[in-house]
Write a structure and sequence with these properties.
The chain is of the alpha/beta class and 219 residues long. The chain is built from nine helices and six strands. The protein has a six-stranded parallel sheet with strand order 3-2-1-4-5-6. Helix 6 (118-125) links the parallel strand 2 (109-112) and strand 3 (133-135). Helix 1 runs antiparallel to helix 4 (65-83). It is globular and about 55 Å long. The structure holds 6-O-phosphono-alpha-D-glucopyranose and magnesium ion.
Length: 219
């Protein structure tokens, strides 16, 4: 049977989560705020604007609208400088092969990301054409854990939500998938992603028979 396979981008398809972290950390330091790795987990999957709001709240800091916007521009410029260094080597282990296997078996594939940089990053990595549908931060108004991004992806693939499998590295993203009634698969640390239906350290650790089972699984 067919499933909709929906991939988050940062931290699932490509190793850019570390770039976001570095750029947010610099921004926070420039405001005299220090935030922890634990807090950073809560920024994963969260839009640019919402992320800065959270950092300011944690740091008990208020800035005017103009500074807010300038800080976001600067954060993105620094992030994009790091993105410039990306090559195919930065595609996370096992992802490329898994995508190719899905295509071979004609499974519908979508990207569901909060990032406004998703399309250029996929193009830079040469994997843009592997996706049948792309929904990113330029397409949605409600941020994860709202299910909008994944529901839109399903709609574009013409598949019901209950037949969707979502791959996520973020707490907010796992919650968004669960809120959409989709199977949620966490990539990363079990202790952060305990709300996911299943967690693997990477795609390399996902057993072949589990991949086959996925095709028949519903929530
Ligand atoms: C993803 C990442 C977040 C990032 C957000 C917005 O969800 O996990 O760390 O802040 O996208 O990305 P953007 O590239 O638009 O700043
Ligand atoms: Mg992510």
């Amino acid at each position: 049977s067919k499933k909709a396979f929906i991939f988050d981008l940062d931290g699932v398809v490509v190793d850019t989560a570390k770039f976001h972290f570095v750029a947010w950390q610099r921004l926070a330091v420039s405001l005299g705020i220090n935030f922890t790795e634990e807090e950073n987990e809560q920024l994963k999957g969260v839009s640019r604007v919402r992320s800065l709001e959270k950092i300011l709240k944690w740091g008990n800091k208020e800035i005017d609208q103009k500074t807010f916007e300038e800080k976001l521009i600067q954060k993105n410029e620094e992030y994009l400088e790091m993105v410039e260094t990306l090559t195919q080597e930065d595609i996370l282990p096992g992802v490329h092969d898994f995508l190719l296997r899905l295509r071979e078996s004609e499974q519908p594939i979508a990207l569901g990301s909060a990032s406004k940089n998703a399309r250029p990053i996929l193009k830079k990595l040469g994997i843009y054409d592997l996706f049948d549908a792309i929904v990113d931060g330029t397409d949605v108004s409600k941020a994860k854990p709202d299910p909008e991004v994944f529901l839109n992806a399903c709609q574009l693939l013409n598949m019901p939500a209950k037949n969707a499998v979502v791959f996520e590295d973020s707490i907010a993203g796992v919650q968004a998938a669960n809120n959409a009634g989709m199977i949620s698969i966490g990539l990363g640390d079990q202790k952060n992603l305990s709300e996911a239906d299943e967690v693997f350290e990477s795609f390399l650790e996902m057993p072949t028979d589990y991949q086959h089972q996925l095709l028949n699984k519903t929530k």
